[in-house]
Design goal:
alpha/beta; 36% helix
Length: 224
């Protein structure tokens, strides 16, 4: 009996802390990149139409650990909000959050998640490319698994001096792991985040490899 209990404990410990390698299908879900290159509204509406929350309801780990880099009382824009896990988390911490997404299905699920957690978020159903924000007007921005260099330029201009941006996505190494033949533009090059934000102050940077997940994460502040 003692041996059985020890084995159960060991298994629980391993499964509780190990992170499984991301599958090709989950990579597609996170990035919108798939064979054929379809990253359209229809693709996302179809994916989000599942009854469950495809990424779960918990926020991204990097955000959960580092959200307090954003000053309390800040107004935050969540770029490519999806089903709202990060937006709802930030709202639960007292921030005023606006989430933008191209998928009407995602917007609906984000609102449902906000109600479930008893918080309020503003939802914006629009393509990020078409979304207009005055320059130097936003306190903070979070952007997870949405790589578009032209959009990054916009985000930088939207932030107020002293504003905070938290950004995370897969690096080019993830493409090799998943054996994907799509264009490299949807992935970050080695050290690319430093180049994208070379004119900002870097507050924190991570480039992690967790059991074949290759992810780069950064927190930057716009110079005052």
């Amino acid at each position: 009996m003692k041996i059985i209990l020890i084995l159960i404990t060991l298994v629980s410990t391993i499964t509780g802390h190990a992170r499984e390698a991301i599958s090709g299908s989950r990579y597609e879900l996170l990035t919108g990149v798939r064979r054929g290159g379809d990253s359209s509204k229809g693709f996302w509406d179809k994916k989000y139409a599942r009854t469950n929350y495809i990424y779960g309801k918990a926020p991204a780990k990097f955000l959960a650990k580092n959200y307090d880099f954003i000053p309390q009382g800040s107004k935050i824009i969540d770029i490519g909000m999806g089903e709202g896990r990060n937006a709802v988390f930030l709202a639960s911490k007292g921030y005023k959050v606006s989430g933008i997404d191209i998928s009407s299905v995602a917007i609906k699920k984000a609102r449902m998640l906000a109600r479930e957690f008893g918080v309020r978020i503003e939802t914006i159903h629009k393509s990020i490319a078409d979304y207009k924000v005055p320059k130097n007007s936003v306190d903070a921005i979070v952007c997870f698994y949405f790589v578009d260099r032209e959009v990054v330029k916009k985000l930088k201009s939207w932030l107020k001096p002293g504003g905070i941006l938290i950004f995370e996505s897969f690096t080019i190494k993830q493409k090799v792991i998943n054996k994907i033949k799509e264009d490299d533009i949807y992935l970050l090059g080695e050290g690319e985040l430093f180049k994208l934000f070379s004119d900002f102050n870097v507050l924190k940077y991570e480039q992690a490899s967790h059991r074949k997940d290759f992810i780069a994460s950064i927190i930057v502040q716009k110079p005052r």
